[in-house]
Amino acid sequence: MQTQAITVELRLPGLAVWGVEEREDAVEVVAQYAATDAECPRCQQPTWQVHQTHRQYKRDAQLWGKQVWILIWKRRFRCRRCRYVFMEPDPSCGRRRRTTHRLRETVARQAEDATVRTVSRWHAVSEGLVQRGWLEAHLAPAVAPTPHVLIGLDGFCVRRPARCGPASGTSRRGILSRSSPASASWTCSACSNAMPTATRSTR
Ligand SMILES: [Zn+2]
User: Fold this and answer.
1) Is the pTM of this model over 0.70?
2) What is the C-alpha to C-alpha distance for residues 19 and 29, in angstroms, rounded to an integer?
3) C-alpha to C-alpha distances, 95 to 11, 98, 136, 175, nearest whole angstrom
4) Nearest to 70 by CA among 102, 35, 38, 39
5) CA 84–ligand 1 middle distance (angstroms)
6) Residue 198 pLDDT more than 50?
7) d(CA 43, ligand 1 centre) in Å
């Protein structure tokens, strides 16, 4: 007998689907992380002992105009070594988040072409969630532990014997990060120091 039913992948990392219920206005997915153990954040030892299990509803991006809810059976593990109890990681949503990364990325992308209020109405979420999703998507990456000295040098120095070739990215302490492993022992410290200040960081 022909039916209208099809199957789509959940595409949330690590989650194993236990069941799906489609209602008139929503789709509810019951899932749990497939990993059977987790690493203790205190002593970094893996443990398989489950201390407790909680149900947590997570709001996901819509599918065919229907709200998708992910009901995750989250586990709290007890470390076999140091007895520390901790919640398993949640890579699909993030720590203590009630929405999936996918939903926050979706509203952030749509907020570039529509107002925050409009996007919040499309997804029936708060305007604050749209704003936080946009910030999460556009915040600057973390600052490198060691500050970079030179930026954007691009193969301009021909002074001998210190020769520079094509390079990309940034350099640290005057040493270029090379884009090609050829021509070993390229160095830029000597030649960049010899360059005029105005041209050192603009090419
Ligand atoms: Zn431990």
Assistant:
1) no
2) 6
3) 19, 9, 14, 38
4) 102
5) 5
6) no
7) 4
